[in-house]
## 1
Amino acid sequence: MAALVELAGAVAHELNNIFTAVAGNLSLLDEDLPGDADSSARIGEVIRTAQRGIVLSSKLQAFAGRQPLRRKRSDISRLVGRVVQDLPPARLDGVRLRVALAREECPSFVDEDKLRACVDEILRNALAAMPDGGQIIVETRSHTAGAEPTKNMPALRPGRYVMIAVSDTGKGMAPHVAARAVDPLFTTKTPGINAGWGLSNCAGFVRQSGGYMTLASKLGLGTRVEIYLPLQQG
């Protein structure tokens, strides 16, 4: 699996360069051509296709843990609290929101902007899964991983972590959908709508930050996503 992730990152980097060059040169070509509406329309379609390739390659790079990160020591509970506070009230219509943040400082060494985007993406998914209302629970707390790996977190190394959890009582996912939820090539969203940052980006970011992400879901019963980030001592 590690070899596949590394290969995906290397291929994505090269594809990103190719798609960027194609889109850029076609844009210049379109400017140089005389006013030919048909040719301009065809070029525009190819440019849009190349741009979709750029987005996909960026997702693959994130999944492979090749994002540029600006890390600093951050109190995760405070950061998550700010993300929740920034949710537009209209998006919470009919939703009971319960927030249980750790009272003690829970610092980790992370890229704050990307962690905000990650938590916001998970909340967006939770809200989208409850069109008729429901409940979302957002939690943070410290967690100690022992030497023996657990069934749902076999790759979590022993140590102290900050846990972020988002649970919802939404539609949930069938097992085959949940198994692919963090796949960068898979989405349940309707084509053409804003798909947000993507769970694959979240998973890649968490791994790159030295952490671990889990997703558990049952059809008709809801979904729970947990993120574990290394606790910054001192």
## 2
Amino acid sequence: MNIKFPVASLVLLILPGIVSADWFEDFKAEATKEQLHQFLYEMPKGGDLHQHLSGSGFSEWWFELALSAEADGYHYYTKVKLNNCREHGWQGFKTTPYHLMFQTIVQSSWQALPECERNEYLPLSKLSNEQKTAWMNAIRLDKPHEGREEFFETHWQRLGDLTANPYLRGDLIQKNFQAFADEGLIYGEPQVSAFGYKMPDGSLIPPDDVAVILRERLAKPDVKATGLSYRFQQAILRFLPNAEQALEQAYRFVSENEPYVAVNMVGREDNDKGYPLRFLSTLRKLRHEYNDVRLSIHAGEVDEPNHHVRDTLLLGADRIGHGLNLITDADTMRLMRHGPYMVEINLISNLMLEYYTDYSQHPFPEYLRIGIPVALSTDDRGMWDSTMTDEFYVAVTEFNLSWAEVKQLSENSLRYAFVDEPVRDELLETYQKRITKFERRASNSGAAGFSTQSAPRKLFICRRYDICSP
């Protein structure tokens, strides 16, 4: 009897270590939503090159760390009611509206308030279960009507003094690193500001001292145990009146403080005061003095067409954050094909902030498939209540990624990381070893090998794709 095998099957019989080229297509066709999500959770990944540390803290982390900060002398209060104490509706320099609920302030700030306003606040430790739930929901986009304005104009203001505690920030770094390591990442490059920190009494902590505090936290065993390699970026708010001065301070700080390697310019791009070319002369001056500072700048995160991505490349950026309206600039699209610049793609962020109402409108697959280097990242995942696994789930299900494309995204996240070449090569080698081992296991087991849930299923993925148990 003659038995004929397809050529691919003969290869597998002769070389059992070789994986069929189309195994991932078979896997996608066979897997349930739950199995695919679990597969993507267990899948080794590269790095996250675009994450704002404050926005990467899940609500439950913030609450836990706020309470534990009492050991360092930080006691926090949050606004739970309104007594109509103020004739005017704004506090400070019009940065936080008086009426905004669940603003969190440190005890020294609370004590400085008039009695009427002090009575609007409760210590975080005294919140009822209902108030605690409301507090946590107030710093994530958990309702259909919430979007860009809620995110930009309330979330950071509600976090308030929590973001000014360097010890809490160090603990938040550890929690992020552990969660990323659990998802299979091997590198992180968070934006960790070193400016604006205070002691419990409100006195300022110089940025260089903050760097020392963070380095001491990074040296602790629980950070090292994650195995995650990392570098930090220092961000500045691009639309502020003193943004040029802040840029100069950031360059000096990054040049003198490890593990900082880069500067990023962030902030709403629909605020025209932060347009890229505003900073051209400042950056040219800074490059006369500093030889060791990299740039990864937000650009193109707006609704209307413009040349901000092109102008940002002129500023000297190696990576573009978001790059959504790059697709409207044909000349820059051609310029960016096949490198040397990369676009940091934030699929969940772009949907949650309403730059797109549907993923069919997103330019990501166009960039990916015409050769513009791209990598997935999480942006402010704590405020979306999502994970890097969820970013891959969106990409695979919405854009029918091939296995080669899935791996390319992680490879790009390491190839374009702001690390020295030997470190980059080591990270890529580690990733290749891990992903090769994983794909052999996955191709052999099929979807059935990913039926046991260990992946966290957060709010975004549960609501958007209905894969969570009731």
